[in-house]
Design brief:
binds fe (ii) ion; elongated; 169 residues; mainly alpha
Length: 169
């Protein structure tokens, strides 16, 4: 006897078109996380100066969190019958997180991190809206990841505020 597909939910046959679209959104999220890992890795090593240490430690911790997000997006792509893309499909977009001219330019790094987190927040809100009433499991997962990104953004906004108060940003 052939196995029967679920008749309700994102895995049902009649949801195939929406599932394809959702996999596309999840692949974009996956690449955003991977690129963030690359950018935070470089920016957790490059900065110089007495004030760089806080940023370095913060980014070191974030690398692991963002990698965990990438793993979650990848698993969900597979669960939805998609295939996690290979590296040749990757296109870099984070122009704002390239190494600054001077490695003591911590403000450049802080602003770049805020930009990356803002982009993630916007894209994940889009996925949460897309999945509403369609795929509660993906929605639940992305809400938790969005919470992490909002926390990251708020932390770096706080760092920036300190430089703003001193007229350095
Ligand atoms: Fe993330
Ligand atoms: Fe983040």
């Amino acid at each position: 006897m052939a196995v029967r597909n679920a008749s309700e939910g994102i895995l049902s046959d009649d949801k195939a078109p929406q599932r394809e679209e959702l996999i596309g959104l999840l692949k974009k999220a996956y690449w955003m996380e991977i690129e963030t890992v690359m950018s935070y890795l470089a920016n957790s090593i490059n900065p110089d100066g007495v004030r760089a240490q806080e940023i370095i430690e913060s980014l070191e911790a974030d690398i692991q969190e963002e990698l965990g997000h990438a793993q979650q997006f990848a698993s969900r792509i597979k669960e939805l019958y998609g295939v996690v893309p290979g590296s040749l499909e990757f296109n870099a977009e984070q122009s704002y997180l390239q190494p600054p001219e001077h490695q003591t330019d911590i403000v450049h790094v802080i602003k770049g991190v805020i930009e990356a987190e803002t982009g993630a927040i916007e894209h994940y809100n889009r996925i949460i809206e897309f999945t509403d009433g369609l795929d509660f499991v993906t929605q639940d997962m992305v809400i938790a990841i969005l919470h992490d990104e909002e926390g990251h953004r708020r932390l770096f906004e706080g760092y920036l505020r300190e430089y703003e108060v001193e007229g350095l940003a």
